[in-house]
Amino acid sequence: MKKNLIAPVAIAISIALVGCKATTTADTLAPAQQKTVQQKNTNEQSNPFFSDFTTPYGIPPFEKIKHQHYLPAFEHGIELNRQEIAAITNNKAAPTFENTIEAMEKSGDFLNTVSSVFYGLTGSMSDDEMRAIAKETSPKLSALSDDISLNKALFARVKAVYQQKDQLNLRVDQKKLLTDSYKSFVRGGANLNSADEKTLRSLNEKLGKLSLKFGENLLAETNNWEMVIDNKADLAGLPDDIIAAAAVTAKARGHEGKWVFTTHRPSKNPFLTYSTNRKLREKIYKGYTMRGDNKNANNNQKIAAEIASLRFQKAQLLGYKTWANYVLENAMAKKPENVFKLLDQVWPAALKRAKEERADIQKMADAEGGHFKVAAWDWWYYSEKIRKQRYDIDASETKPYFSLENTLQGVFYTANRLWGVTFKERNDLPKYHPDVRTFEVFDKDGSFVGIYMADHYVRKSKRGGAWMSSFRKQTKMYGKNITPIIYNVTNFPRPVGDKPALLTFDQASTLFHEFGHAIQGLLSDGYYRSQTGTALPRDYVEYPSQVMENWMTEPEVLAHFAKHYKTGKVIPQTLVDKIQASGKFNQGFGTVEYLAASLLDMSWHTLTTAKLQDAEKFEQGVMKKIGLIDEIAPRYRTGYFSHIFSGGYSSGYYGYIWSNIYDADTWVAFKENGIFDQKTAEGYRKNVLETGGTDDPTLMYRRFRGKDPSVEPLLERRGFISKKK
Ligand SMILES: [Zn+2]
């Protein structure tokens, strides 16, 4: 979850369908809606959502918004959205871009404001009552979404406009809005005859049940497995805190006085890394990799095969060759061939490196006098020994140089050098929690850009991870530029006494990463709200955030911010080099296990038959074809690949490396021209940050770089090939 914006993206997706793509405040309300606001009775007058936000910059009046205000506001927003859609379909005038597509884009404003505040705060200020409201609201929002996407009269109007799209003289972003709107109906089955519609409904229903079952089985498999240790000698090599945690687990599971390890990562990973007992390492490794594969009631093999088959049938019904073709239509990659092409370019170099790493591991095992050929369950154990030998870096060495405050100033410094933007802290603006820090952001010409909020510290009401989202997105669709209100949430430690909050190297990178999303939201310069900021395909959305991380480790930037909190001394470059070198360690393994899972995902979803596969044989066939070595398993095997069988990532697991390639290729431009080269920074701003989802990302990238990205910079970065001179 770290470095991800999963929840906000999921919300954006779920509400995109109901025509409320982002947040807004009352000063952006369409005239029709303002009228409705005035008509509210006195009861509703005390509810802040029912009147204009009179706060500076239209920031939501957080102190006035109470739990009891959400449900009535949701109800009203849903009702208002239905009325707005009805007004479009009841329009006697012939369908036009303005009275249909643009009208849909403008619908749902009220709901959108409520959703942005509510779902924003469920991530960072959750409690039982908020969860109860979410539970009550969620089916109502789904029903609204279904009612809109299955609205035949609405689709007829959209289709009528779409059919004239080439005669309408539309701008690029308008054409995209029209096409995306039409396609989202078609993808939901709007063009099907009634018999096919019935089939689709039945396929969706079966898929829903199977995905749920897959997840339940996996949960049961994960929870049921345990390894009970009653002999203290079998704990050899394990750190004390891991042993203590295992004792707590044992007690909770009715084995008081013993130690229990499970296949959950916080238990399994340290065991594989530190346990000197090879037999037990094998046991826990197999416990983990056999989940969903055991001959019991929780077996997921047949379910996975059925899901793949039903997805193929659904794709066919909707006119697509395979499920991956259906999914990738909405991604930057566009079609499976492009994904395979990319994965095939990285695979040989990664596999070659993994084999070298395997040889190193074997050497280490031999040196310790082990007379065996290393196996998959030895990888963590020996690679950790090699890591310690080559790059032993203690977090306590680096942390004093990365105080939260200094790192934040480093982020602002970088943005200022690149784009001339400045940040001015304001302590008098509404905030949802005392931890929140609020900044006015100004452009290089002094004009106001937007509001940036940072909510850094860990607290109980916050979910884990780090993310970016907005209380209001930038848009120009109401005749003037509505400025964005963007926020970052992280889970960093609080200051202790007079010691400032100190970050690990990874946490400092996270701050740069999340700011990379935020700056895209802030510098956004689009027209339609559903397209602005980070409204991007999922294989592209992590690209700008990853790019931002690069500046952090540049000597010029480090010299500015990475100063010891006590002595003020800048972090020694040798220490930074050591950290960066350690980043290349074990990348063969990491990339290979990731690519193997990506290829497994793509293989399941490019099937051109509904015939049920034998999942075990299918997976073995794929791995044999790519030449995966026995010592590495795909990061997710079929039986527990919940991202693709019970989550929303089918044909999408490749997305992480796709974004990485764009990031590495972009960084080459900055390194060649100068990390603060104004022309490069401006080109990146104009073609990537400002444009958001207003055009095809492939074209936008070409405008920035003058070419498609090449894969070599990524291979160099991971240490698979040496840097070109
Ligand atoms: Zn991210």
Quick summary:
This protein has 725 residues and is mainly α. It has helices spanning 6-16, 31-38, 42-45, 67-89, 97-106, 109-124, 128-149, 152-163, 172-187, 194-224, 240-252, 265-274, 278-289, 301-317, 323-328, 336-367, 379-391, 395-398, 404-419, 505-522, 543-552, 555-561, 573-583, 587-604, 615-626, 642-645, 655-673, 678-689, 697-705, 712-717; strands at residues 227-229, 259-261, 422-426, 437-442, 448-457, 467-472, 485-492.
Total of domains: 4
Largest sheet: 5 strands, mixed
Note the beta-strand portion.
5-15%
Protein structure class: mainly alpha
Helices, by number, come to: 30
How would you describe the shape?
globular
Amino-to-carboxy terminus distance: 37 Å
Radius of gyration: 27 Å
Features of this protein?
725 residues, mainly alpha, Neurolysin, domain 3, 4 domains, 30 helices, 7 strands, disordered N terminus, binds zinc ion
Describe the fold and architecture:
The structure is a single chain. The chain has 30 helices and seven strands. Helices cover 55% and strands 6% of the residues. It is globular. By secondary structure, the protein is mainly α. The strands form two sheets. A five-stranded mixed beta sheet has the order 3-4-5-7-6, sandwiched between helices. Helix 20 packs across helix 21 (543-552). Mean pLDDT is 92; it is low at 1-40. It has helices at residues 6-16, 31-38, 42-45, 67-89, 97-106, 109-124, 128-149, 152-163, 172-187, 194-224, 240-252, 265-274, 278-289, 301-317, 323-328, 336-367, 379-391, 395-398, 404-419, 505-522, 543-552, 555-561, 573-583, 587-604, 615-626, 642-645, 655-673, 678-689, 697-705, 712-717, and strands at residues 227-229, 259-261, 422-426, 437-442, 448-457, 467-472, 485-492. The structure holds zinc ion. Zinc ion (ZN) binds at residues 3-5, 513, 517, 542, 545.
